[in-house]
Each structure stands twice: as C-alpha cells, then as structure tokens.
Amino acid sequence: MSEKKPFAGFHLKKEIDISHFLTILILIFGLIFWATGLEGRVDAIEILYQSDINHLQDRLDRIEDKLDRILEK
Question: What are the residue ranges of helices labelled H in 1-73?
Fold first, then answer.
C-alpha cells in the first residue's frame, strides 16, 4: 500500500515567475504615474478656487464699504 505523507502545514514557494514580477512592476509604475497626474489636476483646481475666493473677497469688501457709507448717512 502507498504511504501518505503527513500534512506539513501551509507552505510558500520562495520563487517568483518573471511574469508576476514584471506585472507588479508595471502596476507600481502605473500607480505612480496616475498619482502624479492626479496631483497636478488637484493643484490646478486649487489655483482656480483660490482665484474665485479672492474675487469673492473683493466683492464682499466693496459691499461692506457701501453698507458702511449707507449707515454713516
């Protein structure tokens, strides 16, 4: 009869296929490329919103000045 080997538990191989390695490298470089592009878009949006905020602040300052002049009369 054939003897059964006792269960040795969970075992991992210490080798990796070149295809897996290349796939992981491509994914890492893709993630870095995507994150860099995302950062550039966020910076552009921040600049746009900052200019809008400055414009609104100027308008609010003018409204405040007008209200002050009306209240002084």
Answer: 18-72
